[in-house]
């Protein structure tokens, strides 16, 4: 029996508030090294689709988004799902806009350049992976993580070794550090694109004789080619490692990463309108992510009164909702109530079974899009970081 005809026949509900790569270079780098990057140009102003390099001051707010790859696609999907669709009339241009956010420019950049340009002051906020912030931000205190879990781009930066040869019985970072093979004359050769995080991690784990070969991709082939002994790279499922006879080791995860929203502290404090835009984006993100994999369940149920029906629901943990069930009388029908709860998608069928077992009928299920709290905790945390 469908719920809608039931309500039409039995009367409307009263109340019913809802609660709830490029390959390896031949350059070897000592564990003690200095990384220098290209000089970042002074702030530029976008005028009629062109870049004006003559202006060092700007009034517009700049958001950096990944320009290519899965991270770029997933970021645009998140913004679309939060009703913040990016308008990009000319795909050849690097600049776009979001109509709902006034005075905001969207700049499409490589993830590492987003971080670098935030450090230099050319961008104000950005969305990138935590691994990118940690590697290219190098602990810069001006970079503040506004949202640390945007629910996509999950991966881990991990050290991996071959399954055979001298590493056959090496299964932990401690065992790797205790190997007698690594000396000043013959250091452990590491292939990686993470030349800031990797040396720090290895040193902290007692591996001091190390040399690095910088690379951007296809690292799994490096040990087999004799170019490196081990690699440090991003791992998602681990399938590529297995297919290339490599393995992760216990204690070898340097960083667990996913997409994050990051902002410049200086910009947040000084650039007019940035705090308001950051607050709105944060609230939209939080509301949407909170609603992921959640479903609204509505049903009819007979009972003596609202309290009795609610207590019956609360005897079953799956039917308690986010903050408790909503129970409302159906107009014109004595001892007949409508109930509204929120349940996780993975527990949906079991929840419906329990609901029917205690008298629920005409069950209607619909996905949730947003769950707005009174205030997002991450906003309060940001204000504390800014001392506001």
TrEMBL record:
One of its GO terms (molecular function) is ATP phosphoribosyltransferase activity. Its EC number is 2.4.2.17. The keyword Transferase applies. Pathway: Amino-acid biosynthesis; L-histidine biosynthesis; L-histidine from 5-phospho-alpha-D-ribose 1-diphosphate: step 1/9. Keywords: Amino-acid biosynthesis, Glycosyltransferase, Histidine biosynthesis, Transferase. Residues 110-277 form the ATP phosphoribosyltransferase catalytic domain. PROSITE patterns: ATP_P_PHORIBOSYLTR. The keyword Lipoprotein does not apply. It comes from the Eukaryota. Signal peptide: none annotated. It catalyses: 1-(5-phospho-beta-D-ribosyl)-ATP + diphosphate = 5-phospho-alpha-D-ribose 1-diphosphate + ATP. CDD domains: PBP2_HisGL3. One of its GO terms (cellular component) is cytoplasm. One of its GO terms (biological process) is L-histidine biosynthetic process. It is an enzyme of class 2 (transferase). Residues 296-369 form the Histidine biosynthesis HisG C-terminal domain. This is ATP phosphoribosyltransferase. It comes from Lactuca sativa.
